[in-house]
Amino acid sequence: MRGAAKSGIGSKLLEVRNLEVEFDTYGGIVKAVRGVDFSVDSGKTLAIVGESGCGKSVTVQSMMGLIPIPPGRITSGSALLRGQEVLGDTIIEGKEIRGAEIGMIFQDPMTSLNPTMTIGNQIAEPLQIHRGYSYRQAFNEAINLLDMSKIPEAAKRAKQYPFEFSGGMLQRAMIAMAISCKPSILIADEPTTALDVTIQAQILDLMRDLQSQTGMAIILITHDLGVVARMADEVAVMYAGKIVEHGTVEDVFYRSAHPYTLGLRAAMPTNDPANQHQLNPIEGSPPDLFSPPPGCGYCARCPWAMSICQKSHPEHYYLNSGHYSRCWLHHNDSEIKPNQLSFN
């Protein structure tokens, strides 16, 4: 696992505060994101982890201005990039935000790339729009980016279309496009989905190498704890539109402080014979976000739920300066202490 601080990095780059996002639907208003707070530093990787539907992708898409408005709307919060508000804006300090300052790797490259344009032209296009390159300059840079992304015969591949690429190569092309304008932040939304394990490892190593070369921050959206362990410096565990635990990767994996985090870990296979045990699925379903519960969203599925969990959502309980959990078990009056919790 990663965790050692890199020298010369660590300035506050992005701060998201009390972000709330809703969607109007035929069934009512879906409260998809319910007061999310996090920050990411230059040169560091923040992993936002949680099961499907917890609000991970909506959180970053709203920050990028990618949610459709209507039916979506940001009802509260701010996102500060180097102290400048970016929610609802497309330009700060004369620079485009989307594509130039914040790049994004989408979940499915097969549907995210234009099938009628060559790979090289698609990578060159942001450079022409955001950086003012001529077509020839942009296409040559696209070849360099494909080569940096470890695609063989980059000059030849730049003239090919997406259907001529394998899944792993398409993901590399998406990474090349996302970093073409040298963004300060790279958002990777499930970057290894549908890839075999060998290609997954190569894509993650590529992202880490590019980060070390450019110093960009990475926000990694995933439900795969193996990817989190390999890539992250800090982890935000998200459930039912809220972050329920946040800490370093060592805090979250070795000193888990929320029952949901423990449930995720218990459902994760391991190769360590000393720690092998029966995998325990998390019983039940997430709450209905048309009408979120007044208390803890995990209450109905939690083996250690108390009566107060149904009535009131817990505050942040800090275990150290950077590690907190939103769970009533950390209250002084709780009879069960978090260090006593175990699925083993």
What does this structure look like?
The protein has 344 residues and is an alpha/beta fold. It has eleven helices and 14 strands. The chain has an eight-stranded mixed β-sheet, sandwiched between helices. A four-stranded antiparallel β-sheet has the order 2-1-4-5, covered by helices on one side. The longest helix has 18 residues.
Topology at a glance:
Blueprint: E1 12-25, E2 28-41, E3 45-49, H1 56-64, E4 72-81, E5 84-85, E6 91-92, E7 95-96, E8 102-105, H2 109-112, H3 119-131, H4 135-148, H5 154-157, H6 167-178, E9 185-189, H7 197-214, E10 217-222, H8 225-231, E11 234-239, E12 242-248, H9 249-254, H10 259-266, H11 307-311, E13 317-318, E14 324-325
Helix pairs in contact: 3-4, 3-6, 4-6, 6-7
Assign the structural class, choosing from mainly alpha, mainly beta, alpha/beta, alpha+beta, or little secondary structure: alpha/beta
| Cα Rg | 21 Å
Report strand %: 15-25%
3D shape: globular
Element order: H for helix, E for strand: EEEHEEEEEHHHHHEHEHEEHHHEE
Total helical elements: 11
Across the major sheet, the strand order is: 8-9-10-3-11-12-14-13
State the helical fraction. 25-40%
Brief characterization of the structure:
By secondary structure, the chain is α/β, with parallel strands linked by helices. It contains 11 helices and 14 strands.
